[in-house]
Amino acid sequence: MIVLDNEPMMKHTTFRTGGPAKRFIKIESVEDILKISNDSEYSDDFLIIGNGSNLLVSDKGIDTTVIQIYDMFNSISLIDDVTIHADAGALLSKVAVFARDNSLTGFEFASGIPGTAGGAVFMNAGAYGGEMKDCVVKVYAVTDGKEVVFTNEEMKFGYRESIAMQKNMIITGVDIRLQKGDKDSITAMMNDLNGRRREKQPLEYPSAGSTFKRPEGYFAGKLIMDSGLAGYSVGDAEVSEKHCGFVINKGHATSDEIYKLICNVQDIVKEKTGIMLETEVRLIGEF
């Protein structure tokens, strides 16, 4: 593993913002995670991240140890004809390509989600009618310094949530069960979904994906647009005109600007519609 002190989090979040982490560790294996979990040198609280696609980290930095499960812990393999094992740091896009190359269908929905397998399990990520809970068989994790395995049922998946959000656990891998399919059809569906993303989402700017959870019976982006907030900005943080559900970094936005924009959007939408938007993005540190 690689240990870095006072590492700028702006280098490790898709918003491209955030102050320094006291300690930043890149892990290579489950053994590294077990060592960290059982070593008094690393006894402070951990923040586990993948590629930082759902985080807004304070400009003031964070006085904690960040464990990155991404760069060097990302293998993908077949367990049997229809089951894939992915390390927690494997990008969802690469898992989707691996599934396609093995003529496995059921994971096309995840091909454009900007996150890792571990992060996707943590928050039960989903898109275009599919969610991780639909295909996860087993989740491998370290908790209380020991390796454990959770079933799909034990993960208690809900809308953008799982038991991992309540328990002190570090997800290390996941088994995903799919179905045999036609490679050309799978490719066509992935191309269609990714084409829709490029057309409708501001992928050319740093963001954290969907900023707000979907309120029951509504769409966050439409509520924001109907509230007259398309293009609304605070500094270089802006509500995307292409898709109002996305807050984007137009240049040199700070986390504070993004946070202020999020709060203002929540207040204005609440005033105009009576609905309080809940953030999907995780706020890390002091704001």
Can you characterise this structure?
The protein has 287 residues and is α+β, with helices and mostly antiparallel strands. Helix content is 24%, strand content 30%. The protein has six helices and 19 strands. It has helices spanning 30-38, 92-101, 117-123, 183-200, 220-226, 255-273; strands spanning 2-8, 20-26, 46-49, 55-57, 62-68, 76-80, 83-87, 104-105, 126-127, 130-131, 136-143, 146-151, 169-177, 179-180, 207-210, 233-234, 237-239, 246-249, 282-284. The longest helix is centred in the last third of the chain and has 19 residues, at 255-273. It is globular, with a radius of gyration of 19 Å.
Short note summarizing the structure:
Helices cover 24% and strands 30% of the residues. With 287 residues, it is α+β, with helices and mostly antiparallel strands. The radius of gyration is 19 Å and the shape is globular.
